[in-house]
Design goal:
The structure is a homodimer. The first copy, chain A, has about 425 residues and is an alpha/beta fold. Chain A contains 13 helices and 17 strands. Chain A has three domains: about 170 residues, 3-Layer(aba) Sandwich (Molybdenum Cofactor Biosythetic Enzyme, Chain A), CATH 3.40.980.10; about 80 residues, Alpha-Beta Plaits; about 160 residues, Alpha-Beta Complex (Maf protein), CATH 3.90.950.20. In chain A, helix 2 packs parallel to helix 6, helix 3 packs across helix 4 and helix 9 runs parallel beside helix 13.
């Protein structure tokens, strides 16, 4: 089935906003086993819209149009859709009532120009928008079924997921039960993950499991798309493959599906009734900024200390008479202990970075000293070495200032995740120099 | 002149990467007074590429094609361009030599498949790529001049700026001297800035100054595009308009051109020989993370403290016997003073946020208490009220957790900028509730 996407609007065409709706839609379709064949971007311009609709109507089976459903004069999608389909516009009285209620609930009177949003091409199929005033609609133009969607991302996302994807799957004749399973890992490069998962798709011989990746440094997302007759069929197919991914990627899997690394760490601390202190240097607050604002972090996050010059760290955590001019494991551990005790926390993560000197360049690196102070009581396992109450990890990351900063923040949070899950804190990763 | 852009590549078409090259190119053209009329996205697929080139060649005067110039088998741009133009591929011996030297300088032998990157359509005009192995080229297909560019963003940017924009301007017959002047402001909404700048374009009656905006919460970018015969002509036209923008937006302009708010603050502190301490609560380290990792911050940034629960702040800055359960201006000022003194810094910025209770929602807000402790000596002006050594600002920001977090970080950094520049710290902004 040939699917096209048409994105409309001067803001997208002029580059004033980055077109993330396109990539969102394309990925969402990939996730259910459908593919986009062609993308078109045009402005709020009658001739361009008409030409784009007609061309896509000749080439495609299905077309998703995004944008142009708003109340202002430059929102032209309904009008040009009707023109392209050779029909008139008719009032959808039910939607007009819904819009009026929408405004009434907000103690406002609906402005007259919003009425335009209830004018749909004759014969169009209504697509509900439960969270906005721009309803969608489906209409046949040429040989293709067109789906018109709002430009506001959260409205688009909901309409795509709830109303358009099921219609596309029905149209494609594919089994409509589809599940996407995602694993997030850190420490293995994309090609390494790919190689570790060789032969995985073949575990389900009918081809109904597809493997894909998405890299966003420093994490890699591994995606399994599974099709089946129904949910039970999918679960039966997915279970052994899912187990195999966990077995092969092992400790490197830091989260699954909608989880995040910081969310997993926060949940583990919460479950343990633990509290956290942080000491950051060149990561500059980036670790705190990922975790401390999250809901429920107020019960866990005690204190973050950010110091830019390594030798100013001891004073900031109340460690007198210690110089970090010459870093050692013992000193890093002392910093973590002092931060833990000063904040009255059960755990402290210290990330001390010796950044190479000089201007930024691709081979500029940093030596990263990570120490995790903890209560030192069971069930802490002996394999988390480094003294009874501190786990330690040293690494060297190269690739320029940003690479070091982002990589060190990820490595440190991941060490804390590993520690809290009873996994080895020290395990070779692809992104470090040895 | 009708310009189209064609973006190629499976990674873009499947949404695996967000197509920021498109918006970059479109903005760059807007900045010099040119407009994109149509955008096309296709994958690494012979039929789609050929169809896209032919369609654009019928419609446009100029076409920029991005991607597909790499060494691998799925990089097809040269081959399909030649096919669309009805010519063969010929070796560009000069570029082959340049590539071999490129590898030699890195002590590597050029792999044989890179030779493909020196095969250009017969009659194509060579476009240099001084920083990569994918050279560009220009070629006429149908009635349009096509410019083929590499997908690697930094290579694209350089080629677009140095080689393609001048050719497009020459083709369009527009005066080729063009300057873009940018102002970054915070505190005024886009429509408010627009209204304040009414009539600005008319100051230069020949229409050679164009005004534009780009909003990325919480900042607004105001752009002036000026065309002229030459640099002197442009400077003469720009000078009064530029002065007028500064006069009308006044204290709200936080930076110009490539400057950033955090860069301006860091530079002002550096010039003053000052050092900085930070106290953050719900901003969670986001302020530190913007400034403390910058080059030269190691001489200025002394210490950041992140505490999630307001009442744990006093202990973290060594203020015993103070409870923040009931916030007051006096307490906020005491926190800033204590942080300044504990860190041995000349200045401290404290951002204390009382976040509304309950689940996230659009009308959830936060009360933001900002105190700037300083040395309290001349040339501090009396209008920065709040005691001889502290400036103070209170605000209320509404719009959900993320809106509050980002808005408070911006407001606090901007208050520090205003203080350091001798401007009033308290000035009504559009993004706060009163």
């Amino acid at each position: 089935m040939r699917i096209e996407i048409i994105c409309t609007g001067d803001e997208v065409l002029t580059g004033k906003i980055i077109n993330s709706n396109f990539s969102y839609m394309a990925q969402k379709l990939e996730d259910v086993g459908l593919s986009v064949h062609w993308g078109t971007t045009v402005g709020d311009d009658r001739d361009s819209l008409l030409a784009a609709f007609r061309l896509a109507g000749e080439r495609a089976d299905s077309v998703i149009v995004n944008g142009g459903l708003g109340p202002t004069v430059d929102d032209l999608s309904q009008e040009i859709a009707a023109q392209a389909a050779g029909v008139g516009l008719v009032l959808d009285a039910a939607w007009l009532t819904r819009m009026e209620e929408f405004f009434a609930r907000r103690s406002r009177v609906m402005p007259p120009n919003n009425r335009k949003q209830a004018m749909l091409p004759a014969g169009a199929e209504f697509l509900d928008n439960p969270i906005g005033t721009a309803c969608g609609f489906a209409l046949t133009i040429g040989r293709a079924r067109f789906f018109f969607t709002p430009g506001v991302p959260r409205e688009l996302r909901r309409m795509l997921e709830e109303q358009i994807v099921p219609r596309l799957l029905a149209q494609s004749g594919a089994p409509s039960a589809i599940t996407l399973k995602r694993f997030h890992s850190y420490g293995l490069g994309e090609s390494h993950v790919d190689q570790l998962l060789t032969g995985l798709e073949a575990m389900v011989p009918d081809g109904s499991v597809k493997l894909g990746f998405r890299a966003h440094y420093p994490q890699i997302e591994t995606k399994l798309t599974v099709r089946g007759r129904d949910e039970a069929d999918i679960r039966a197919k997915l279970a052994p493959v899912e187990a195999e991914v966990r077995a092969r990627l092992g400790n490197f899997i830091l989260a699954e599906d909608d989880q995040t690394l910081e969310g997993v760490v926060l949940a583990a601390l919460t479950r343990a009734g633990a509290t956290l202190a942080l000491v950051e240097t060149f990561t500059a607050g980036a670790i705190a900024a990922r975790i401390a604002h999250l809901p429920a972090a107020e019960h866990v996050f005690r204190r973050g200390i950010v110091v830019r010059v390594l030798d100013q760290v001891p004073a900031a955590v109340g460690l007198s008479h210690v110089s970090l001019a010459e870093m050692t494991q013992v000193k890093a551990e002392a910093v973590a202990r002092a931060a833990r005790d000063a904040a009255g926390a059960t755990h402290a993560l210290a990330v001390l970075i010796e950044l190479d000197e000089g201007a930024d360049r691709i081979d500029l690196g940093g030596t990263v000293w990570i120490a995790i102070a903890h209560p030192g009581v069971p069930p802490v396992e002996p394999r988390n070495a480094g003294g009874g109450d501190v786990a330690f990890r040293r690494s060297r990351i190269v690739g320029g200032r940003e690479w070091v900063r982002l990589g060190a923040a990820e490595l440190a949070l991941d060490c804390l995740r590993r520690f809290l899950q009873g996994l080895p804190v020290v395990e070779r990763i692809d992104f470090e120099k040895v």
